[in-house]
């Protein structure tokens, strides 16, 4: 029996859309009421999570969609997963919710076993973890770790802070508050707070009117597809971008302490980075003494067929920090070098030091992915889905440009000729029973759960063929 | 029957400490193991939340302490509260944990009722809320709201962004990424990310080695105690500090878009601001077009005898934004002016837009505080406790300097002559069965739950008298 059937014996077998417009009348009514207390403008519909199951999300009108967006790529195992319900009802969970500990000062007896479960799922080469609350938070905590590490290499790990550092920092001035930068890439998305916002560079609307640090953005390689037919051009593109990275690090007015990159830029358009590029960044950052951070917030937890996408590149020696959130529900960063443990306590610290309720969910997700072999399944289903998309591309080459994600599980995307056509396709897909997201201006991105199977792919492909033919 | 007895018929009647040192041997062993996967250096002991109950926290050695620190002021109703356990077991909670929605794009039917419960608890004058994940996150989200508001007043709320803004922002440069500041106060604590870190100014260890925005810190009034005997001097102190605030706003090299203040600086030493001072800041910020933000992360949710501490000052017109976290478990900011709703969607936005599991807990806490009249109880118990501390102060004036928090519920603090004596007192109190926290260099701060009653105060006072006599 398939994993989805084991989890969800009553999962719908087809989507059902019974309203002529989306959102339907009940959603519209509900969103109008919600809009009085919340910003409901970005809502696609009002969801009914009681009725949602497995790969199907149900809305307030009873429409049931096959979900290939999965809460902006953050549902790992499907809706109302029985194993997660078990975790949610466990005594550890009740305690975590009711007696939320300040994990730094008064850690719970429950903490060590939970962290061990999470660490069993750590990327190759990483064996330590620090916990945060969201992708933005995870990245900013990683920046703090990187800045402390960078300065402690300059100062000496065990050296005390100088009086000048201790006084200037209280004025937000050097040397206590040093001018240091994090280098990121154009079209990157790493979050929307102020430091994470400064490395984010995908759309103006994310950042307008907010002060930012004057940090540099290099160029992320833009490949020609299919990859196999464009090897030389793409290698040249990698080298062009690497040169820009190196030049920026060497010439930027503020010392570059860290570099952060998504192995696949997701919000920014599903731009993939090659193994060669990601490895060359390791060589370069090692040479120049820059901390190497991989942002796996959207790419992590299995959807590419590896637990963590950058494992495809087998970077050696391993990168310094790997951040996570979304599908793992818990957030934070993995690391391996003990020098990233700050030289004193209370430097990487806050009241809660993470969310134990979400750590328990993360532990349960990790265990399920491992026990049910969901990485293998995702690779297999992704290959199946990709082949079907290839076939559609042969038929409609204009509507399936730059098809991306071959051999990367279900982490698949392609471009439409215009933003208007992309938007029309997404809208039509909903009416045909499939909830799918876009990214950047032209792309469709597929982000189903890890319980998405061939039978779901068939339903999606059928709806897609219909929508594309109607475009 | 008292509220504590209703909630906790089996609450211990006295603390029991059976190890000669704290942490005891089982805690030491557990923390050593935990230290291999987590920064356990700041831990006081390893806690056993299964056995903790009401106002008593139990550690791995079976020591049971009367808890006046309550997870750094973030437990509202006591450990294993039956009403919160009920909320934790509710179907809404299971859904929130298992099917965590992207609340902006796919809001749940459960969301509106939860937000309404939270809004019933909003500070006077505020009727809207936006959700975040922690105190630091809440403050940074409030900064984003303030910056958008400030710039939209300059630009015109409905005016489109210019091409120059849309392009410069992608380089982190003006005018799209404007140079704007938030003014805060010396000794303030507002969080430890990069913007929240820039307004935090209590201890160097929170900030060293991290880049900061060049934002100004004004002076927070430092009063003479008892307040009733020092009215003229304290009024002069208020005026001195107000002058500094005004001068900084008018002269700072970067335009000051917002001001953030704690009504009582907590981490920074339990420094209180007078009604006069907080109202004068409203007058000043209105006059100078600066957004007024009150940080109620530590002071909120009842511990001062009001739902929100700044309600004591009855500021008119109401402040612009009020941030919360900690004891409310959910985080975010309250507001009332619709111009703080950004002119376009996706400007105040992120994947999750808050944590529905914690919103459910917040709703349950709000309901309990209201139904059980816990504000009145906290005021009454606080007065009782304060009188007992006054009596101890008469006996040991050197050990109870600047006793603060009269008529502010149980939100009470005082100073020891030296940091070493303060630390010794906290250590001795633990051995005498009371878990108590410090703040700044010299202060003891009391932060019990809202179910702390006269009987608990008696136990604490007895332990305190013993510890002080042994100092």
UniProtKB/TrEMBL annotation, chains A, B:
GO MF annotation list: 4-aminobutyrate:2-oxoglutarate transaminase activity; pyridoxal phosphate binding
GO biological process per UniProt: gamma-aminobutyric acid catabolic process
Family matches, as Gene3D superfamilies: Aspartate Aminotransferase, domain 1 (3.90.1150.10), Type I PLP-dependent aspartate aminotransferase-like (Major domain) (3.40.640.10)
SUPFAM superfamilies: PLP-dependent transferases
EC number: 2.6.1.19
Annotated InterPro entries: 4NH2But_aminotransferase_euk, Aminotrans_3, Aminotrans_3_PPA_site, PyrdxlP-dep_Trfase, PyrdxlP-dep_Trfase_major, PyrdxlP-dep_Trfase_small
Recorded coiled-coil stretches: none
Entry's Gene Ontology cellular component terms: cytosol; mitochondrion
UniProt keyword annotations, A-Z: Aminotransferase, Pyridoxal phosphate, Transferase
Keyword Transferase: yes
Catalytic reaction annotation: 4-aminobutanoate + 2-oxoglutarate = succinate semialdehyde + L-glutamate
Record's keyword annotation contains Acyltransferase: no
Pfam entry (one): Aminotran_3
Cofactor: pyridoxal 5'-phosphate
Protein family per UniProt: Belongs to the class-III pyridoxal-phosphate-dependent aminotransferase family.
Name of the protein in question: 4-aminobutyrate aminotransferase
Source organism per UniProt: Lachancea lanzarotensis
Taxon lineage: Eukaryota, Fungi, Dikarya, Ascomycota, Saccharomycotina
